[in-house]
Amino acid sequence: MRPWILGLTGGIGSGKTAVADHFASLGVHVVDADQAARWVVEPGRPALAQIVAHFGEGILLPGGGLNRPALRERIFDNPAERQWLEQLLHPLIRAEVAQHLALAESPYAIMVSPLLIESGQYRQVDRVLVVDVPESLQVARTAARDQTSEEQVRSILKVQAAREERLKHADDVLVNDRDLAWLKGEVERLHRFYLTLRGGRE
User: Fold this and answer.
1) Which pick of 34, 40, 97, 127 has the fewest CB atoms within 10 Å?
2) What is the pLDDT along the chain (202 residues), one digit of tens a residue?
3) 134 beta partners
4) Residue 13, marked binder
5) What's the pTM value of the predicted model, to 2 decimals?
6) Chain centroid to CA 6: how far?
7) What keywords were assigned to this record (predicted)?
8) Is 18 annotated among the ligand-binding residues?
């Protein structure tokens, strides 16, 4: 039987990675859409050539790789450019993720994506787990982790789906406002529950 797919999402600084890592340590096959997004623009892949043709050589690092901060800057306040980039990359990322999910041998597999809801990727999964965290904690954690200003974090939050929107799509919610030991316990509880499901449904 093919594994069913759990979509794992949460806002920036919510602890998605810690949750995904613990599921992986329990033997669950995890595919990260962010990693897939990096793979599709590696040198030699067709997407990179199209990005350079569109934005110019200035978007490359001296070694020929994609200069992500420069690209982010070009699209940040420019909805038309962002849309162009998303239309190019989203289908490629979807295909890359599907290819990696197909390798799963665990009873269920996890697709981790910060933009699960916004990008419509939630339609590809059987169940949605949202890692939720109060916004003040999100901002403090992210600013500390990325050595960035609270103002910058808040501007990223604006682009991501509002918490309400994410929670509306959730089948399960894990509120990550305590310590790591507690978080791991919650992941293990969910894992035991998920092993009882057929196709992601009770």
Assistant:
1) 34
2) 789 999 999 987 788 999 999 999 999 999 999 899 999 999 999 999 999 999 999 999 999 999 999 999 999 889 999 999 999 998 999 899 999 999 999 999 999 998 898 888 899 999 999 999 887 777 777 778 887 887 877 777 676 667 888 899 999 999 998 899 999 999 999 999 999 999 999 8
3) none
4) yes
5) 0.82
6) 12
7) ATP-binding, Coenzyme A biosynthesis, Cytoplasm, Kinase, Nucleotide-binding, Transferase
8) yes
